[in-house]
Amino acid sequence: MNYTSYLFFFGFAVIVFMIYSLVPVKRRWIVLLAGSAVFYAANSGFLIIYLFITTLSSFFCGKKLTKMADDFKAAKKELSKEEKKQLKEKVTKRKKLVAGAVIILNLGILAFLKYYNFFGEQVSNLFGLFGINMTMPVLKLLLPLGISYYTLQAIGYIVDTYRGKYRAETNFAKLALFLSFFPQMTEGPIGRYDALMPQLYEGHRYTNEDFTGGVTLVLWGFFKKLIISDRISFIVGTVFDDYYSYSGVTIAIAAACYTIQLYTDFSGCIDIMTGIARMFGIRLAENFRQPFFSRSVGEFWRRWHITLGTWFKDYVFYSVSLSEPFMKLSKFASKHMGKFLASVIPSSVALFSVWICTGIWHGASYKYAAYGLYYFGLMMVGTLLEPVFAFLAEKTKANRKGYFWGTLAMLRTLVFVGIGMMMFRADTLMDFFYMFIRMVTTADFSEILSGTIFTLGTDKHDFLAIAVGTVIMLVVAIMKERGVDVLSKIVKGRIYIKWPVMIGLIVAIIVFGAYGKNYGAVDNIYAQF
Amino acid sequence: MEKIKAWGISSPVKKYVRGVSFFIILLLLLCIANYVTLPRNNTKKSGIYNENAWGFYTEPKDSIDVLVIGNSDAYSAFSPLEIWNEFGITSYVSGQGNIMMAESYNAYLEAVKYQKPKLVIIETDSFFPNFDENEIMINTLADTVYNAVPLFKYHDRWKYVTLHDILNPPEYKWRSYSKGQYVSSKIDAYVPSKHKKEIEFDKTDIDPFISFYLDLLIKEVRNNDAEIMFVRFPCDKSYVPEKHDIIQKYADEYGIRFIDMDHNPEIAGIDWKKDTRDKGTHLNVYGARKVSKYMGNYMLDNFKLPDRRNDEELKKLWDEDYKTYLLVIDTMNKRLK
Amino acid sequence: MEEILEILGEVKPGVDFENATDLVGSGVLDSMTIIQLVARLSDEYDIEITPLDLVPENFESAAAIKALVERLED
């Protein structure tokens, strides 16, 4: 989706908001549901059937799981301890079967729509390798809007009811609203039932703070997207599409630019969506927490696309690492291996599963799988070398938590993240390798001095706009890092602060935004996943 | 705000006053930004898009009798100077590539501020733009917004604004010697294929976002007591019979003459080996000469258009431009060789 | 308590676990170390720690961990 879609989207949200405000508080959630249904149907047409299947299956699965847990509770009262244990095992097995079947159904839909053609191609290639001419038919598969996001929400809901975190939803319409809430349909954030559902269901009265707060956040999102992201995308596109024409320095700059582009694009969109939800008095989960101030890649992933990271932690990492075979592996390792290996090997297996999933969640290609493995590798190296670092630090009496080493760690993390971004943006994995090799072997600064940088589809004025925009964003981020939330301060502040900021944002977006006749519309990056 | 309170104005009114004043301040700033970013001249260099389409501003007032509106087919195939030289009719072709009807309508409204065309020719390839329905909708809405608020169209000019610009209001000075025609004598042959068309066409009617503005345009032209005709200029590449039928039906309904130079290729007699500059997408000056000759005769036979060669001053101006036109073609040919 | 501190020391050496009260918040215990800790605890005390127990509140301090273990032992 490009910015025009977001304008439409915002317009649509305003209409829904007006209807929302007119309906009695108790019935307001129905307006949200109807709005979401209209939005989805208008966007994806008959593909809404997929969303319906997911909603229906999770609804009945959740109900069944809760009922089984209730039955067990009722039955166990009259049983002895031994019998209890037996029954529990039996019930757990059955619950596993029910939850597993529905999860596999939903994951199956997602995997089929997203990965079928990729695997078909691989299978065909494989047969071709042996001289067998067998081609899997390529299917024209249309991906329903938001399937990568709502499927994860549905699975989270099923696993939580399986674990007994909360009771299943008894109202189908409410669950449908949770899975289809329209601001979350394009790029997330991935919501949790227990945090989101109560907010969606209870009607919110209009408050000035929520409304202006929401609108300001929407403006802030457009600021990031239109002034920084869509403008910087031209440098990125020019260099990445034609990297063999540029030297290492320019490639490195382009990689840095892409890092900024992806962040402003993705977090800008999330800001717009969070702002819209906020107008309704609904707080969506936080998805970014100044990720570029992280001191390790692990920390980076706890602050970047947070809802995806915590989802994988809760539903993949914990599920894998607390499973029975896994616990056996741990015990085996602690008995037969050294202490250090015993602690590293099991968790690394769990971590591996998380990162490979994270990688291919973004799409079916070797590139995305490698992207996941890249971070897995970085984390493992970090863990393995941690004792070495600790030893060195002790020897040299370096204060690793101090300002100097902290900044150094931050820069190191930025470099690792930048390389990851390069892989993420490159057309194929091979392109990434060539590009990377070119980057480190052709460090030619002449392109900087000759002003090549201003010929990459962005002139000096564009650079100025990008620079000013980025500095403003940076200042806001630094303030937030220090505990001052500038945006919400402004919203709560007095008129002579609030108005200039809001009016300033609107005028800046309209005048300095990279939209209109001189710019093609730039699609949002994360909407494709 | 404190003062308002002292006057005893109740809180809802206060809120209302606040809200309104917020928008007034915003609007004021946007008006300023709008003024600052307006192009200072009607040239490409000053930020005007498709400058050739906007040369009618600087022709002598009410001197243009025929206005041609449309897309690139129009400005490639219609040559006002050829028509002038042979028939003494004054015309201007205002064409923009991939134009939406909303923009055609806007071009007409702009033109009649300065000119009083007696005949308006609407080029019909622009009835079926090369976009899908969604793009047509978005582009039409964008054009509508652009023309209502030029700031959205020209905002990118913040890059080039100087103090001199701010102090001096826009003044259109540039004249198009070719009267909007895109002059090119390049030859890049095209071999029409009799069996296979390159385009897929599955429409059964004109897109509602096109016909909405087309209706407005027709109404406006008739309000101004001017005649209308539809012309499809030669472009075999994008021609399918269905397009002809849809337009013919529409033209009959409104009682508008329709000439289709692809449906009846013999009338212009285009030789696709010589008369196109880009493999059949657009005509070159040789193609335009043929089309203009036919158009001149047709207009003379069917509409009451004055011979402006009797007007000494105008004759001097147009003859001068005709000379320039010949010179440009000559220079171009030398360079092409 | 001693036992728990000992296990903690094994899993992540060089931290003052006795007085710390925001082990998760400060990043001392990340999800990797928590998993190692859980494996050791469930082995040592023969308890079953489920994903539901893996919330920050249960791991913020040695005392909190002890409380968790005691609750699960019942």
Report what the structure shows.
The complex is a heterotrimer of chains A (529), B (337) and C (74). Chain A has 20 helices and no strands. Chain A has 529 residues and is mostly helical. Chain A folds into three domains: 20-205, no CATH class; 206-284 and 443-529, no CATH class; 294-425, no CATH class. The termini of chain A are close together. The model of chain A has no long low-confidence stretch (mean pLDDT 86). Chain B has twelve helices and five strands. Chain B has a single domain, classed as SGNH hydrolase (Rossmann fold). Chain C has a single domain, classed as Non-ribosomal Peptide Synthetase Peptidyl Carrier Protein, Chain A, CATH 1.10.1200. Helix content of chain C is 50%, strand content 0%. The mean pLDDT of chain C is 82. Chains in contact: A-B, A-C.
Q: Low-confidence segments of chain A, ≥5 residues, pLDDT <50?
A: none
Question: Biggest sheet of chain A: strands, sense, closure?
Answer: none
What is the strand arrangement across the widest sheet of chain B? 2-1-3-4-5
Note poorly predicted spans of chain B. 1-8
Largest sheet of chain B: 5 strands, parallel
The overall pLDDT average of chain A reads 86
Number of helices of chain B: 12
Global shape of chain B: globular
Q: Structural class per helix/strand content of chain B?
A: alpha/beta
CATH superfamily assignment of chain B?
A: SGNH hydrolase
Derived structural class of chain A? mainly alpha
**Number of extended strands of chain A:** 0
Q: Tell me the distance between the termini of chain B.
A: 75 Å
Query: Which two chains touch over the largest interface?
Result: A-C, 24 and 19 residues
Care to give the gist of this entry?
Chain B has helices at residues 2-6, 11-37, 72-77, 80-87, 101-111, 133-148, 150-154, 163-167, 208-223, 241-254, 285-302, 312-336; strands spanning 66-70, 91-95, 119-123, 227-232, 257-260.
Notable features of this structure?
heterotrimer; B: 337 residues; alpha/beta; Rossmann fold; five-stranded parallel beta sheet; 12 helices; 7% strand; disordered N terminus; C: 74 residues; mainly alpha; Non-ribosomal Peptide Synthetase Peptidyl Carrier Protein, Chain A
Break the fold down into its secondary structure elements and pairings.
The complex is a heterotrimer of chains A (529), B (337) and C (74).
Chain A: H1 3-22, H2 28-44, H3 48-76, H4 81-129, H5 147-163, H6 172-180, H7 193-201, H8 208-241, H9 248-279, H10 297-303, H11 306-321, H12 324-336, H13 339-361, H14 366-396, H15 403-425, H16 429-441, H17 446-449, H18 460-481, H19 486-492, H20 495-512
Helix pairs in contact in A: 1-2, 1-9, 2-6, 3-4, 3-5, 3-6, 4-5, 6-7, 8-9, 8-18, 8-19, 8-20, 9-15, 9-16, 11-13, 12-13, 13-14, 14-15, 15-16
Chain B: H1 2-6, H2 11-37, E1 66-70, H3 72-77, H4 80-87, E2 91-95, H5 101-111, E3 119-123, H6 133-148, H7 150-154, H8 163-167, H9 208-223, E4 227-232, H10 241-254, E5 257-260, H11 285-302, H12 312-336
Parallel strand pairs in B: 1-2, 1-3, 3-4, 4-5
Chain C: H1 2-11, H2 31-45, H3 62-73
Helix pairs in contact in C: 1-2
